[in-house]
Amino acid sequence: MLLPAIFMALLFIWSCQSDDLKDIKPIDENGMVLEDVMARGGNGKGNGYGLLRTCATHEVLQRKLKQNPALIRKMQEIEAHTLAFKKSKLDKVKKPKKPKKGKGGTGSGGSTPDSDSDGSTTPNIDNDSNNTDGDSGTGNDGIVITDPLPAEDPGTDYNSVDDTPDPLPTRYTIPVYVHVIHSNSAEFISIEQIRSQIEVLNADFSGSNTDINNTPAEFKDRIADAGITFTLDENLHIKWKSTTRAEWGTGDEMKSSAKGGSDAYRPEEYLNIWVCNIGGGVLGYAQIPGTGTTSTDGIVVAPLAFGTTGYVAAPYNKGRTATHEVGHWLNLRHIWGDGGCEADDFVADTPLADRPSYGCAGTPSYCKTPAMTMNFMDYSDDACMYMFTQGQKFRMHALFSKGGSRSSFAQ
């Protein structure tokens, strides 16, 4: 049961290119500033899938919120449920200690409200940009959420509890349906390529990927087995559809047979993945929980970034684009909070950052703390992202709990 106390939310910036980031330039692994054309997904040398990752999830969210502001309340309800789920787990772990001031210095987010002991933080949302399909622009006509959200008991400081959450032994199995929409022979990807992507998802969401051993020492104690398994019936749940359309954009038209795409298959029970050429240098995007209808629920990934074999192209040839987008589908934000140092990804055990990381940047210092560039929710190359944290696992599992927005997958 949610406590009656409420607080006014701080402004959380959900913007891949917010006003706070206009003067912050992406850097490569050598510390060199990258040109804007490269930051938008191309390298200026004829490769539309250039040096830098381009995720359009934020742009899609902004467009939907502008078209239907009522979705804001739905997002708030989901975050309130996450908070309640977190508190119910903490109450079973240990009693809170004496309150202390401050965040503790290791998690993401602003100074108030304090981050929570399970690795999550109380949500505050400020959407300050809106863009068109495939564009990573810097518009500032977005929507600001300032409505009050349910708060913790004001007399209890849950930030004082140990940062390691109650272990969640439950494993969830998510069946997958893959729609391959192709306009040429290269996009007609093989079963082997599809299978390789499912294998990557299962490794990444179980912490069994071999490159997780590359995690820097300062982050090893935060590594999580997300406890999620993906299954695919290759005989029944793959659909190939031919089209004359070369690019699909981010308007969800690939998800409608009436518009030449492929209708979602039982989205309350299956993770639908559409593999098609999105265009604009976009590698993928996802539907954030609570921000659309079931008919559009799922993720979209470009064929060049899907799986590890066949029609794939470096540096996105290790299947991590789908891992990243499934993370969004499971309510994870970009690790830098899509803003400056005051922004929040609602996860306390991911360090503060004021920008995405590209290439293989190691652990540069952002916001006076080492950046977790190897997290799946950053923008690093596939070869250099390989971990989720305990706090991120907690957010994902909250969706499957009773009353959660993806609880149908736990039945």
What does this 3D model show about the protein?
The chain is α/β, with parallel strands linked by helices. 18% of the residues lie in helices and 9% in strands. The two termini are 22 Å apart. The strands form 3 sheets. Strands 3, 4, 5, 6, 7 and 8 form a 6-stranded mixed β-sheet that branches.
List keywords for this structure.
disordered N terminus; 6-stranded mixed β-sheet; 411 residues; alpha/beta; 9% strand; single chain; 6 helices
Topology as a string of helices (H) and strands (E): EHHHEEHEEEEEHEEH
- Poorly predicted runs of 5 or more residues: 1-51, 94-169
Shape: globular
Radius of gyration: 20 Å
In whole angstroms, the N-to-C terminal distance is 22 Å
Question: Could you give the count of β-strands?
Answer: 10
* Class per helix and strand makeup: alpha/beta
User: What's the total helix number?
Assistant: 6
Binned strand content = 5-15%
The description of the largest β-sheet is:
6 strands, mixed
Query: What is the mean predicted local confidence, pLDDT?
Result: 76
Q: Helix share of residues?
A: 10-25%
What topology emerges from the helices and strands here?
Elements: E1 6-7, H1 36-39, H2 57-67, H3 71-93, E2 149-150, E3 172-182, H4 191-204, E4 228-231, E5 238-242, E6 271-275, E7 284-286, E8 299-301, H5 320-329, E9 365-366, E10 369-370, H6 390-400
Helix pairs in contact: 3-6
